[in-house]
Amino acid sequence: MPHPAPAPMASMSPDIDEQQLLRQINVRVNRIVRQATDLAIYGREEVWHASGAYDGAAGDCEDMALEKQAELITAGFPKSRLSLAVVYAPAVGLHTVLVARTRDGDQVLDSRTPYLRPWYKSGYTWLSVQAFAGSKAWRQPLSERQIALAASDTADTDRS
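Request: output the structure for the sequence above.
Response:
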């Protein structure tokens, strides 16, 4: 089965190293924001609000993903190349990450790690992904078979 064509790359200032920008914002937000549940912060469950990135800022995974998204857009990274995703891992449960579409493929910015990873090496089961291009629509990700094919194609490409 052929892979879907990647979305066209929206332009970004050529003097910005996108990988460096993604790493810096991921590390900074992860380092500054104290992780806390919505119940502890807002007194109720499931509040999606950017955490802020200042001394005393607190938020859960989706608040941190929204903060990273806002900071990347402010820094000139195109909104159309950013997407939120809801994933699952047995040790974590439901979790929200930010995905950035780059020239090197879709990279995951995760509140659980300072490292950027390709989506297919994240170790997560992908449940729902916000459509790229600045859309508010959500969709189910690729099937497990499509994910395995994408990972093997990328591994073949890496060996070439």
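Residues 1-11, 153-160 have pLDDT under 50 and may be disordered.
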